[in-house]
């Protein structure tokens, strides 16, 4: 609840050029920019298949991004093993600061989940169910898209851009036309750090809840015949 409230207050609302709450020392207006001008979108990912004449790789999947699974150079091998052509290893590789979106959903308000990759992942490609956004250098603080692309201003645009009936989809052009509000890199870094700490706190609480559930389950098994 706190994170949702702060996403609302620490990013400008539609029609505004500054947020309600800012870190001390920052006074510059935020700039509205088009995502397609600051990086390159690419879809056409890799199938969930293994073929004998292809190269073994690991696959970043839809649910990995949807759940914002923390993937790094130490645990990338826990991703789904598949195979890919040598050309796909180049075209669909995953580099540090790549941003991934979920471009489809059963409901329009659940579309466009976003996750930043914090480290380059060797022998890893992304699923055809994802869209990769590779920003130009020095446009975004490393983790800023996790939060700046999840604020209400951007979410509303994604919902409007989603097309479909039984399943909603945002095409590449729709992603390119998305507009985001950007402060200076230094302010982006401060915002990212704040929300990263909130995410860590949420994760710790979730782990504690799971431990308590496990204790409860064990006690239920031992305290009843």
Structural account:
This protein has 225 residues and is α+β, with helices and mostly antiparallel strands. It has helices at residues 2-9, 62-66, 86-91, 144-148, 152-161, 172-176, 185-222, and strands spanning 31-34, 39-42, 55-60, 80-84, 93-94, 99-101, 104-105, 114-116, 121-126, 131-135, 163-164, 168-169, 179-182. Strands 2-10-6-8 form a 4-stranded antiparallel beta sheet.
Number of DSSP strand runs = 13
Strand order of the largest sheet: 2-10-6-8
What is Rg?
20 Å
Overall average pLDDT: 94
Q: Which stretches of 5+ consecutive residues score pLDDT under 50?
A: none
| Inertia-based shape | globular
How large a portion of the residues is in β-strands, by DSSP E?
15-25%
Number of helices: 7
Terminal CA distance reads 40 Å
Helix/strand structural class: alpha+beta
Instruction: Return the string of H and E elements.
Output: HEEEHEHEEEEEEHHEEHEH
Major sheet summary line: 4 strands, antiparallel
Helix content: 25-40%
The assembly state of the depicted protein chains is single chain
């Amino acid at each position: 609840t706190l994170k949702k409230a702060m996403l609302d207050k620490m990013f400008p609302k539609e029609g505004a050029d500054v947020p309600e709450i800012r870190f001390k020392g920052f006074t510059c207006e935020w700039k509205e920019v088009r995502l397609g001008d600051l990086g390159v979108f690419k879809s056409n990912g890799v199938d969930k298949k293994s073929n004998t004449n292809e190269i073994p790789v690991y696959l970043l999947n839809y649910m990995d991004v949807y759940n914002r699974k923390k993937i790094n150079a130490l645990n990338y091998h826990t991703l789904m093993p598949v195979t890919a052509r040598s050309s796909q290893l180049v075209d669909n590789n995953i580099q540090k600061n790549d941003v991934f979106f979920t471009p489809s959903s059963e409901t329009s308000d659940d579309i466009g989940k976003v996750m930043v990759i914090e480290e380059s992942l060797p022998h890893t490609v992304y699923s055809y169910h994802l869209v990769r956004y590779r920003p130009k250098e020095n446009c975004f603080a490393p983790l800023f898209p996790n939060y700046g692309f999840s604020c209400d201003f951007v979410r509303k645009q994604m919902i409007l851009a989603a097309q479909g009936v039984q399943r909603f989809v945002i095409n590449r052009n729709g992603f390119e036309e998305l507009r985001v509000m950007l402060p200076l890199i230094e302010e982006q870094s401060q915002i990212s750090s704040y929300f990263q700490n909130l995410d860590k706190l949420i994760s710790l609480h979730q782990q504690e809840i799971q431990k308590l559930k496990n204790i409860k389950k064990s006690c239920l098994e031992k305290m009843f015949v």
